[in-house]
Amino acid sequence: MVELAFFVGAFGAVGGAVAVVALRNPFYSVLALVVHLVFLAGIFLLLRAQFLAAAQIVVYAGAVMVIYVFVAAYVGGIEEPMFDSSPQLRIIGPILAVALFIEISIAVLGSSLTALGTEGTDKIGAGFGTPEAVGKLMLEDFLIAFEAASILLLVAAVAAIILAGRKRPEKKVT
Amino acid sequence: MAIEWYLVLSALLFSIGFIGVLVRRNPVVILLCLELMLGAGALAMLAFSRMLGDQDGQVMVLIVLVVAACEVVVGLGLVVAMFRRRLPLDVDDMKELKG
Fold first, then answer.
1. Would you place residue A12 in the very low, low, confident or very high pLDDT band (cuts 50, 70, 90)?
2. CB of B68 within 8 A of CB of B40?
3. Which CATH number do you get for residue A4?
4. B36 touches chain A (CB under 8 A)
5. What pLDDT, in 10s, does the model give residues A35-54?
6. Rounded CA gap, A23 and A32, in Å?
7. I need a labelling partner for B60 at 20 to 30 A (CA). Which of A24, A31, A54, A140 fits?
8. Are A159 and B68 in contact (CB < 8 Å)?
9. Rounded (5°) CA angle B90-B25-A25
10. Is B94 an interface residue toward A (CB < 8 Å)?
11. Which of A86, A112, A146 is at the close of a domain?
12. What is the Cα–Cα distance from A94 to A97, expressed in whole angstroms?
């Protein structure tokens, strides 16, 4: 049962990812990423990360993708010529990526970590990955990271306004 | 399900995102492919978190989620600024900073 859920999630996630790269219209790429993120959230659930699966759907598929859709609609669906990048990159890019995948796979499968081949430790409590557990950890052990993230969000919001905001004519100070 | 499967899936998703960043030229699509790569990293982190029975990895993924949101906001702000200035939305043409 777990295997079935994993492979359905994996096929969906990989299919969505391939569609993001392969579709010409950026608008469709955004929608393909939503599909990818929903399947990825399913795989997160298999890893007992309930809170993160929910956060992934709410934050990414809900909020971030709306920004993407707005920008893609604002900029307009530019049908770019398929893979019309500089010719060296067009050939070398996929080769590098396949080499990277093979290398990581060899590193993962050939590593001597015996724990890798197992289901993972059995010693996880019932509260593993729930909002209570993650929130408690976040506000007790990782408070500084939490605060730094909030400041980062504020800085990013100001930066977006400055970058994308319309320039107003300066008012004369009298 | 052995944890290896999750790690190989994560490597595959990362490689697909990597192809996209190298091959595509539209900045919006490049940002989408960066999202793919970040998601692959999050998947690997959650797999190890499950393997070790330690929830610290999940907090880390949450922070990565925040950083990704910031990156999207600034990146799309740049795209809108490029569009306003009538610059071509093509990263190959944006090379004035090249030395």
1. very high
2. no
3. 1.20.120.1200
4. yes
5. 999 999 999 998 888 999 99
6. 9
7. A31
8. no
9. 100
10. no
11. A86
12. 5
CB B24 within 8 A of CB A21: yes
Which range marks the domain in which residue A163 is found? 127-167
Pick the last residue of a domain from A60, A86, A112.
A86
Which of A104, A122, A151, A162 should we substitute to test contact with B (largest number of B Cβ atoms within 10 Å)?
A: A104
- Our count of domains for chain A comes to 2
- Whether residues A21 and B33 touch (CB distance < 8 A) is answered with yes
Tens-place pLDDT, residues A52-82: 999 999 988 888 889 898 888 888 756 665 5
B97 touches A at CB < 8 Å: no
Give the CA dihedral A126, A129, A133, A138, nearest 10 degrees. 160
The closest alpha carbon to B7, from B35, B40, B37, belongs to B40
Residues A82 and A131 both lie in one domain: no
Domain that holds residue B45: 3-88
